[in-house]
Amino acid sequence: MSKAPFVIVGNGIAGVTAAATVASLIPDTRIPIYSSENYPYYRRPWLPDFLAGKYEVTDLYAYPESWYQKRQIQVHLDAPVASIDSASKTISLASGETVRYDKLLLACGGNAWIPPVQNTDIPGVFTLRTLDDALAIRAYAQKAKSAVIVGGGLLGLEAARGLRGTGLGVTVIEVFPRLLPRQLDEEGAAVLTRLIEDFGVKVVTGATVENVIGEDAAEGVELKNGQRLHGEMVLFSAGIRPDTTLAKAAGLTVNRGVVADAHMQTSDANIFVAGDMAEFDRRIYGIIPAAIEQARVAAANMISPNSATYEGTTPSNTLKVVEIDLTAMGIVNPEEPGYVAYRKSEPDKGVYKKLVFKDGALVGAILLGDRESVRPVTRLLARNAEIASLGPRLLEPDFDLKSLL
Ligand SMILES: Cc1cc2nc3c(=O)[nH]c(=O)nc-3n(C[C@H](O)[C@H](O)[C@H](O)COP(=O)(O)OP(=O)(O)OC[C@H]3O[C@@H](n4cnc5c(N)ncnc54)[C@H](O)[C@@H]3O)c2cc1C
Q: Which of 17, 108, 129, 245 to mutate to test the pocket of ligand 1 (most atoms within 8 A of CB)?
């Protein structure tokens, strides 16, 4: 049985950030990371462009081998952890090996979710979470002419652009009445839809997919209203579910995700959690900035109890489609009263901007077609700048937002 003071499960951004944090706080510590996947940490956000053939596998790797060596981070690839015994403070690998820890970090991420749709287990049906998924999609796309993407969120649209880039005819289906329901409002989504359609991507909103058509392989999907949409590939992009299997079996408190306190500690004092599998304050973030912040806090507390506190992350999402500049931050669709919003819409120019205020302070923004304002607005939002009194002219192109910093 091997032993290490700090052991990490999962080599995504959360696991690797935690390992790097431990290495920076106490150098000369061997830090093992166990990974189900067979690749060193790679950039998931680049996978949609990988589909379009813009990158090769090794381009996705974030760090060279020397980066790990320097920090004594030992990544065990293709080494899934099968169970945790919190009483003896050991983990067991699927290979049968056991490892003893003083403090354990769970950073297992999430799995792509497929909504309740019939006939999803035939060839040609995919989800996009891992590099292996992307390789499988890329290979299949070579013999396909068209694809249906179920889900008009960020990832669905990025995948749509990626597959369109390979020459496929692409249809995006969204169950909500508009694209990017979490990041946009109706007006903004209308502007975005036009931009997406300009690539030749067909957009169908307010539609529920009921089953995948095809016997030996996918041929398309059938909607609840009976309409059939053709596509030899069907890619589900309907969100993720935290991977809580290990944590549940170990008896940790699990709600939708593994429940963490402000120290990113689970219900077991020796086990911490970070990233897409963590639920903090009833929230699962599912974004990289949150995974990084949580991992840093978890690592600090694994070394020195209660030395760091996680206070939540202000969500900021950028659509990574080269032709479109879209960033949505903070509260964009307030559901309670007491908010004020300024908007500027220029559909012909592909521009839609919105600033959301509460008690005069900036709490959210949508910036579509305005890359220049992203940096200053991000900073103004971070400090909840009290700028509502300046009025809608804040959104005019000649207003110098930087002068407010
Ligand atoms: C295509 C795509 C594009 C995205 N784009 C963006 C973006 O632009 N911006 C953004 O903020 N976020 C983006 N995201 C989301 C972002 O990738 C996630 O928030 C982030 O990866 C979460 O990191 P994580 O370390 O928690 O989990 P993961 O990255 O999922 O890593 C967890 C790892 O743990 C491994 N694991 C699971 N169980 C075990 C086990 N039992 N034993 C060993 N290993 C295990 C998994 O195989 C996986 O390798 C994107 C996601 C995808 C799929």
A: 108
Q: Which helix (H) or strand (E) holds 240?
A: strand 240-242
Spans of the chain, pLDDT less than 50: none
Residues 6+ apart with CB under 8 A from 348: none
Angle between helices 288-303 and 13-25 (to 10 degrees): 40
Output the six-digit token pair for 122. 């035939």
Structure tokens at 154: 């960020």
pLDDT for residue 155: 96
Decide: 179 and 205 in contact? Cβ < 8 Å: yes
CA of 300 from ligand 1 middle (Å) equals 21
* Three-class SS of 137-182: HHHHHCCCCEEEEECCCHHHHHHHHHHHCCCCEEEEEECCCCCCCC
CA angle at residue 198 from 373 to 134, to 5 degrees? 85
Cα 128 to averaged position of ligand 1 atoms, centre (Å): 11
